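Progress note, sequence design subtask.
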């Protein structure tokens, strides 16, 4: 698992819980290692977990010529200082996006090469 974590470069705050292979795809389950998170409203730390969100499926860069998907399980925390609930931040993807930031940057770099069209990049990813 350590080798895959280094290969994916997810960061030290994210851990891989399980890896599966299905239909030529690598499916990697990830979650946060953080025990407490800073509240975005009042800026105090909390470790009170309210619930877990439905796992998100995020497309990522190819690994050893296999398509890869990250299954991200995020937690919602409750701040006892301001009594608000919030979702923990993870720097894997932007809000409301189904592709990782690394994949988005790779697509933009391919577009800047001027040798490739958006259609050819899209076909390569899928």
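Output:
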């Amino acid at each position: 698992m350590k080798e895959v974590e280094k290969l994916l470069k997810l960061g030290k705050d994210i851990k891989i819980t399980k890896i599966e292979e299905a239909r030529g795809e690598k499916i990697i389950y990830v979650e946060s290692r953080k025990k407490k998170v800073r509240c975005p409203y009042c800026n105090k730390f909390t470790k009170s977990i309210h619930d877990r969100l439905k796992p998100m499926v995020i497309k990522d860069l190819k690994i050893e010529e296999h398509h890869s998907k990250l299954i991200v399980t995020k937690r919602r925390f409750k701040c006892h200082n301001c009594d608000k609930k919030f979702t923990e931040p993870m720097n894997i993807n932007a809000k409301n996006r189904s592709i990782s930031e690394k994949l988005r940057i790779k697509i933009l770099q391919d577009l800047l090469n001027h040798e490739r069209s958006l259609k050819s990049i899209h076909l390569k990813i899928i």
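The first strand starts at residue 14 and ends at 22. Work on this subtask will continue into the next period as scheduled.
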